[in-house]
Specification:
The protein is α/β, with parallel strands linked by helices. The chain folds into four domains: 108 residues; 182 residues, Histidine kinase-like ATPase, C-terminal domain (Heat Shock Protein 90, 2-Layer Sandwich), CATH 3.30.565.10; 137 residues, OB fold (Dihydrolipoamide Acetyltransferase, E2P); 117 residues, 3-Layer(aba) Sandwich (Rossmann fold), CATH 3.40.50.2300. Strand 22, helix 17 and strand 23 form a beta-alpha-beta unit.
Length: 596
């Protein structure tokens, strides 16, 4: 006989109910957020179409006014009754047609703008929800701090209390991963260098135990993390003396520093006031590295200190690294973007206001002298000399605190929210760029790293116009790659250093361009539709008969067999993307062109 099972009890039903949470791989969340970013880019493209419709409506209205004026002029011409009747009939038809066209465009424009507004709201909600799925409480990095403070207190014979506030504040997972080491170093530094020993604190009338307070809170689209101690503070004069002793500044230059500028010398590479180097607070990480790491996260580090009262370090970070506000600038023929968080200010610099100090051009901004350079010179872009067309140029003031730089550009175009796209393998090791931004019209703009620009600025001087300034012909390069992003990134990089670059979407397209024009060198991917890189190279040698045209293969195919195929096809250089940086490609190009 069949055995019938009893229905489950309510408690058993509860035990077998589906869970309220599921595990999702982080790479899927990254993919979901990237797709959301693509929707934002498409929304920008729709905005361009909306502007086109608005322009068409304006043209239709202008045409209506022109038609009415023309009909008024025709009405004053003497015509026979039949001609007048035909003219009136045609005029009415033309007027009706014009009005119908204008009304049609007006209705479609209204519908499109309504759709665009709804789309904007939905994409914004989707982006917010997806970003929320990647957020984790900052307590995940706070958990390492109490133990570090306890161990360091014992090692230094100090009494230190750690206060943690805002542990539930949420931050993007990738930001949290990168934040752990810098935050730990700041806290260890506060205990080791900030808090005084108990006997010294007693002499100063302070409690025997020192306090390090770490607080996090979110406001708008950013998170503020404050690390504050009630220790000895930073002595500005001691910072000046140390900078002079280490050869970082001349005595004259150090004397010109304000107290705030002096204490921010702590961010100078390799700077320390400790008489005996230990492994207690730093663990091999300097405060310059802390600021660099935070800046690379599109954040800022603010330093405040009062001698005898304590020090406060404030970290300002975005909630997410996927979208950020950027400033768009024009440099010669190219557009670049910089994180708005890394731009201290935007100002005008007049050539007559430049002051030469120690062989460098400087500009007095907000009561202090800043070194002034051109972005074109830092990036190696062939551009007209500065101040050639105008007595003034726009400048971005980069950096924070004592480390500021005036960066001359040809034009500051806009500030907007942008979606950051990761760089391809070809560019991922280049610290000069944080990522790329793609706009609705398909244009790709590189996002520059402000901290790298500040580093490059140390060995660069401003070149002012001279009477014998000349421009030489630029070598013509052909880039073949079926990846739009890689193609545009490589094109932008090579053009920025002075090459005349043409891009091809695959091997067949490249071959057609080689038939139609003259090029000095070819850079080609391997895996492309219609014709791959090996076939393209062989066709250049055999079909076109260009045995001396340099060809560089740049690909992710790293096997010895693929390298052999490339060389047999006639390539002079074979570069594997994963083992490569921008400079290696530039060196190969210069060597093959005979310019090195």
């Amino acid at each position: 006989t069949a055995r019938r099972t009893a229905p489950p009890t309510p408690s058993r039903q509860r035990r077998t109910a589906l869970p309220q949470t599921i595990r999702v791989r982080t790479d899927r969340l990254d993919r979901l957020l990237n797709l959301t970013g693509e929707l934002v880019i498409e929304e920008q493209a729709l905005s361009v179409h909306a502007e086109t419709l608005t322009h068409l409506l304006e043209l239709a209205q202008q045409h209506t006014h022109t038609t009415q004026a023309m009909l008024g002029e025709l009405a004053r011409i003497r015509l026979s009754p039949d001609e007048q009747q035909r003219l009136t009939r045609r005029s009415e038809q033309l007027a009706n047609l014009t009005n119908d066209l204008r009304e049609l465009i007006h209705r479609e424009a209204e519908r499109f703008h309504s759709f665009l507004n709804q789309h904007h709201v939905l994409v914004g909600d989707l982006e917010e929800e997806v970003i929320t799925t990647r957020l984790l409480p900052i307590s995940t990095v706070f958990t390492n701090l109490p133990r570090a403070v306890r161990e360091l207190s014992l090692a230094t014979s100090k009494h230190v209390e750690l206060e943690l506030h805002g542990e539930t504040t949420e931050l993007d997972r990738k930001l949290l991963e990168a934040l752990g080491d810098p935050l730990l170093h700041i806290v260890r530094n506060a205990v080791d260098h900030g808090i005084e020993p108990p006997d010294e604190r007693a002499t100063l009338g302070k409690p025997s135990h020192g306090t390090v307070r770490v607080e996090a809170h979110a406001s708008g689209g950013e998170v503020r993390i404050v690390v504050e101690d009630d220790g000895r503070g930073i002595d500005p004069q001691r910072m000046r003396d140390t900078a002079i002793r280490k050869g970082l500044l001349s005595a004259e230059r150090a004397a010109l520093l304000s107290d705030q500028e002096a204490i921010e010398l702590v961010f100078a590479p390799g700077f320390t006031t400790a008489q005996i180097l230990t492994d207690i607070s730093g663990r091999g990480v300097g405060m310059d590295v802390v600021r660099t790491n935070i800046t690379e996260l599109s954040g800022q580090v603010l330093l405040e200190s009062q001698l005898g009262r304590g020090t406060r370090l404030t970290l300002l970070l975005p909630l997410t690294l996927v979208t950020t506000r950027v400033v768009l600038v024009q440099v010669g023929e190219f557009r670049f973007a910089l994180p708005a968080s890394g731009c201290h200010a935007i100002t005008w610099v007049y050539q007559a206001q430049l002051e030469p100090i120690e062989g460098r051009a400087t500009y007095r901004y907000d009561g202090r002298l800043l070194p002034v350079l051109r972005l074109a010179d830092l990036l190696g872009i062939a551009a007209a000399p500065p101040f050639l067309r105008d007595e003034r140029m726009p400048a971005l003031v980069l950096g924070t605190g004592q480390r500021l730089l005036g960066l001359l550009v040809d034009e500051v175009q806009d500030e907007r929210e942008a979606v950051i796209k990761p760089l391809s393998d070809l560019m991922e090791v280049q610290r000069r760029y944080i990522g790329a931004i793609q706009f609705g019209d398909g244009q790709v703009v590189l996002l520059l790293n402000p901290m790298t620009l500040l580093t490059l600025a140390r060995g660069t001087t401003l070149k002012l116009p001279s009477a014998d300034s000349t421009r030489t012909a630029r070598p013509r390069l052909l880039i073949a790659d079926d990846s739009f992003t890689t193609r545009e990134l490589v094109r932008t990089i090579l053009t920025s250093v002075g090459y005349d670059v043409t891009a091809a979407v695959d091997g067949r397209d490249a071959l057609d361009k080689l038939r139609a024009g003259v090029y000095d060198l070819v850079v080609s991917d391997v895996e492309m539709p219609r014709m791959n890189g090996f076939e393209l190279t062989a066709s250049i040698r055999q079909e076109l008969g260009q045995a001396d045209l340099p060809v560089i293969i740049v690909t992710s195919l790293a096997s010895e067999e693929h390298k052999r195929q490339g060389m047999e096809a006639g390539a002079q250089a074979y570069i594997v993307k994963g083992e490569f940086d921008q400079d290696s490609l530039l060196r190969a190009i210069e060597q093959l062109l005979g310019r090195s």
